[in-house]
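User: I'm curious whether this sequence folds into something compact or stays loose and floppy. Could you predict its structure so I can see for myself?
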Amino acid sequence: MADREAAQWYPTAAYLYVLHLDDVDLAWEYLRRNPDYQSDWRDRLRRPDAAHSWGLRLLEDPDLDAREAHPIWFPDQPGLVQLHPDIDPMPDSIGFDFWRIPGSKCLVHDGRCLRLLICWPGCHVQLAIAPGLEIGMAFIYLVRACARQGNRFRTIATVLDKLTVAADAAPFALARPRPSPAALLELQTLQALDATLAGASLREVAKGLFGPRAVTDCWHADAGLRSKVRRLVRRGRTLMLGGYRRLAQLDG
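Assistant: Here's the prediction. I'll summarize afterward.
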């Protein structure tokens, strides 16, 4: 038997970042583990149109986890903020200033416009910069009309509030509360999924997640531990094979 303790999936510490991901980031974590998606990434030069079948505008490198990747989902997320030139600016309008936007920034062209992806501790924001908007120009925020416009306005307002707070005092570090049971479930699901994709047995998965002592004491036919591990593996595969679309809000 291979030394599972030397496997990449075995140390739970490697998954601690998962505890602080939102649903959209978690969607990427499940999608990037899909072997078919990984195959499409390798063949991306021959299949440039494959991204839409996965709910993306552009294929993203599956070797990058949610801390480094910048997937652009299709259709756009409700929190996407669009910036357009203001054709009739007010006297107190401010000009667009790329360098005053807080956080680490990444520019990506999705085939229609520039996407500005912004990250700082505890927050990710995405801006769509319309063609024609230049530094120093007055600009407006654009919100698409929808059936539940009030929810859309609140989502955009939350994004803008984050930008304002970060611009005033971008944090170097962030104190976080104790992880929720839901966050812990995602960590265990991803670790169990990686283990089974690497060929580990359910018993080996249980050792990695809950420790050898728990397996020695509780691993038998009627044990809850065996059922729990089986559910984690099944949940992980379901999310990897399409369930991630719900997390990324692609189907609603």
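Summary: Helices lie at 23-31, 35-42, 149-168, 181-197, 202-210, 212-218, 224-247. The radius of gyration is 21 Å.
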